[in-house]
C-alpha cells in the first residue's frame, strides 16, 4: 500500500541508532553518541538537510518517542526480548553473519527467525516510508535490513533508495544454502544502488541474482524481469551495483594520536608492559571471523620455537565483548581463554607475560594510545568486509612508526598493499610474516607506513560517503517524482 509522505529529505535506516542510552546509578537516562565511523560519516552528509535516522534503540525498554539531536530526527524502533532473540541474535547473527563470512561456523536456518526478520524489516520500511519527504534519498545499511529496499519501494516508489553492505557478500555456492535466498535477493533489488566493500562482493551478488533469479547484467547494472506472483519484489527492476570501500575519519584519528595526553599514555602503556623491545598488538571484537585463535597459535609456536621470548616480546590482545548471548561467541571466548592461559603458563616469566589479554572495551583516546604504543599490529581475520582497525592504525601513526600484518581476506588488504600481507590459515607463513614485520629496518617500515597513511588520508570516510551518494544519484531507473 502506498503511504503518505513525511518531511525528511534524507533518511538513514540502520540496525542501531547512532546513540546509546546510558542509565546512571540514580536511574536517570541520557543519550550518548555511539563510537564508530558510521556516525561520523553520516554527520556531514546529514547536516544542512532535513535528516532522520531510524534504528533500534539497543535495549528492550518501553516505547521511546522520536527526538531531535544535533539537528537530526532520531526515530527509535523498540524490539521485544523475543524479537531481539529471533531477528537480531538469531537470523542476523546466527544465520546471515556466519553464512556471509564463508561459514567459519555453521549457519543455523530456523523458520521462526526468518519470520521475525521479515516482520522487523517491515517495521523499518514503514517507519522510513512515514518519515521520507516526496523524492527523498534513503540510505539503508547492512545485512540486517536486506528486505527493506523492496518493501520501501512498494510503499514509496518516489524515493531514491540505496543500500550498503558492511560485510562480505558470499559466493553463490554458499549463498545458495539460504532457504530464503531468493527472497533476500528480491528484497535487495528494490534499491536503485547496492554498494559493497569489494568488487568481488558485488560480483558475488550479481552471480547469485543470475543463478537464483535468472537476472541479466550489463556492466554494473542488474536487470530483473520481475515475477508473476504477489511476493516481495515482483516488479521489473534495473539496479546499479558497485564497490565503495568504507573508510575512517583520518583527520580526527591523526589529531587524536598527536595529542600530548595520548602520546604520554602510549609511553605509559609500554612502561607498564615492562618496556619490551617489541609490543605486538591485536584489537578486535571477540568474533570468530577475526582470526584471533590463528594469531594466538602462531604466537604460541613462535615462543615455543624460541624465535621470540619474554620479556623482549609481548602480545597485547584487546578483545571487545560482542554478541555474548550467542552460543558460538561463548564457545569462542572459552577457547581463547584456554589458549591464552596455556601460552602464559608455558612462556611467561614473573612480571613478564607472554600475552596480556583484556576482554574490555576502551575509550577512543585509549585506542589511539594503544596503536601508538604498538610496534606491530596483527590483523588476521579469516574474512572481514573491510577492517577499520587496520586503517585506524595507519591514521594514528603520524610518527611513521609501526608495522601492519594484515590478512589478505580483509577488504582493507585491497587498499593497504604496503602492509605485510598474510594468510592466517597458513600458520607457518603467518609466523614468518610476523617475524619479517618485527625485523624489517625502520626506514623501510616508515616508507610502508607513509604510503598507507596517504591512502587512508585521500580515501577517508567523507570521500566514501560522497562517492556512495554520487553513485546512488547516478543510478539508473530515476524514480518518478510526484
Ligand atoms: C563491520 C565489518 C567493516 C573496537 N573495540 C573498541 C572500539 N572498536 C572499534 C574499532 C573500529 C570498530 O570498532 C571495529 O571495526 P572493524 O571494521 O574492525 O570491525 P566490525 O565491528 O566487524 O565492523 C567490518 C565495518 O563494519 C565497517 O563497515 O570494516 O568488516 O565486519 O572502529 O576502533 N572502539 C572503542 N573501544 C573499543 O574497545 N572506542
From TrEMBL:
Superkingdom of origin: Bacteria
Gene Ontology terms describing biological process: trehalose biosynthetic process
CC annotations in GO: cytosol
Pfam families given in the database record: Glyco_transf_20
Single GO MF descriptor: alpha,alpha-trehalose-phosphate synthase (UDP-forming) activity
Xref: InterPro entries: Glyco_trans_20
Family in the record: Belongs to the glycosyltransferase 20 family.
PANTHER family linked to this entry: BCDNA.GH08860, TREHALOSE-6-PHOSPHATE SYNTHASE
Name of the protein in question: Trehalose-6-phosphate synthase
Organism from which the protein derives: Ornithinimicrobium ciconiae
Amino acid at each position: 500500500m502506498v503511504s503518505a509522505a513525511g518531511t525528511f529529505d534524507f533518511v538513514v535506516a540502520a540496525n542501531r541508532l547512532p546513540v546509546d542510552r546510558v542509565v546512571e546509578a540514580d536511574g536517570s537516562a541520557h543519550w550518548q553518541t555511539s563510537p564508530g565511523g558510521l556516525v561520523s560519516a553520516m554527520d556531514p552528509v546529514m547536516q544542512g538537510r532535513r535528516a532522520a535516522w531510524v534504528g533500534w534503540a539497543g535495549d528492550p525498554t518501553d516505547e521511546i518517542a522520536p527526538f531531535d539531536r544535533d539537528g537530526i530526527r532520531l526515530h527509535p524502533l523498540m524490539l521485544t526480548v523475543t524479537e531481539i532473540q529471533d531477528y537480531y541474535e538469531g537470523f542476523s547473527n546466527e544465520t546471515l553473519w556466519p553464512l556471509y563470512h564463508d561459514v567459519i561456523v555453521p549457519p543455523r536456518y530456523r523458520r521462526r527467525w526468518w519470520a521475525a526478520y521479515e516482520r522487523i524489516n517491515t517495521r523499518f520500511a514503514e517507519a522510513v516510508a512515514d518519515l521520507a519527504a516526496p523524492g527523498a534519498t534513503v540510505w539503508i545499511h547492512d545485512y540486517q535490513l536486506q528486505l527493506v529496499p523492496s518493501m520501501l519501494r512498494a510503499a514509496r516508489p518516489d524515493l531514491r533508495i540505496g543500500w550498503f553492505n558492511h560485510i562480505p557478500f558470499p559466493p553463490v555456492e554458499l549463498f545458495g544454502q539460504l532457504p530464503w535466498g531468493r527472497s533476500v535477493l528480491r528484497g535487495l533489488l528494490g534499491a536503485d544502488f547496492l554498494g559493497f566493500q569489494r568488487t568481488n562482493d558485488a560480483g558475488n551478488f550479481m552471480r547469485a541474482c543470475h543463478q537464483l533469479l535468472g537476472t541479466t547484467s550489463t556492466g554494473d547494472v542488474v536487470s530483473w524481469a520481475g515475477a508473476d506472483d504477489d511476493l516481495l519484489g515482483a516488479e521489473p527492476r534495473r539496479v546499479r551495483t558497485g564497490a565503495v570501500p568504507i573508510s575512517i575519519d583520518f583527520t580526527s584519528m591523526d589529531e587524536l594520536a598527536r595529542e600530548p595526553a595520548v602520546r604520554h599514555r602510549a609511553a605509559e602503556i609500554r612502561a607498564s608492559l615492562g618496556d619490551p623491545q617489541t609490543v605486538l598488538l591485536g584489537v578486535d571484537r571477540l568474533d570468530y571471523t577475526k582470526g584471533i585463535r590463528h594469531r594466538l597459535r602462531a604466537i604460541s609456536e613462535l615462543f615455543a620455537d624460541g624465535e621470540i621470548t619474554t620479556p623482549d616480546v609481548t602480545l597485547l590482545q584487546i578483545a571487545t565483548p560482542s554478541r555474548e548471548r550467542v552460543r558460538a561467541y561463548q564457545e569462542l571466548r572459552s577457547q581463547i581463554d584456554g589458549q591464552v592461559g596455556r601460552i602464559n603458563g608455558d612462556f611467561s616469566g614473573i612480571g613478564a607475560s607472554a600475552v596480556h589479554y583484556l576482554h574490555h572495551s576502551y575509550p577512543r583516546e585509549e585506542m589511539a594510545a594503544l596503536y601508538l604504543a604498538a610496534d606491530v599490529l596483527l590483523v588476521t581475520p579469516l574474512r572481514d568486509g573491510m577492517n577499520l582497525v587496520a586503517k585506524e592504525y595507519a591514521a594514528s601513526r603520524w610518527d611513521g612508526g609501526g608495522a601492519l600484518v594484515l590478512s589478505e581476506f580483509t577488504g582493507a588488504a585491497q587498499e593497504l598493499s604496503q602492509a605485510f600481507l598474510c594468510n592466517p590459515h597458513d600458520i607457518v607463513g603467518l609466523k614468518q610474516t610476523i617475524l619479517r614485520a618485527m625485523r624489517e629496518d625502520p626506514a623501510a617500515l616508515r616508507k610502508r607506513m607513509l604510503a598507507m597513511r596517504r591512502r587512508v588520508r585521500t580515501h577517508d570516510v567523507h570521500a566514501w560517503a560522497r562517492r556512495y551518494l554520487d553513485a546512488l544519484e547516478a543510478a539508473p531507473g530515476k524514480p518518478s517524482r510526484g
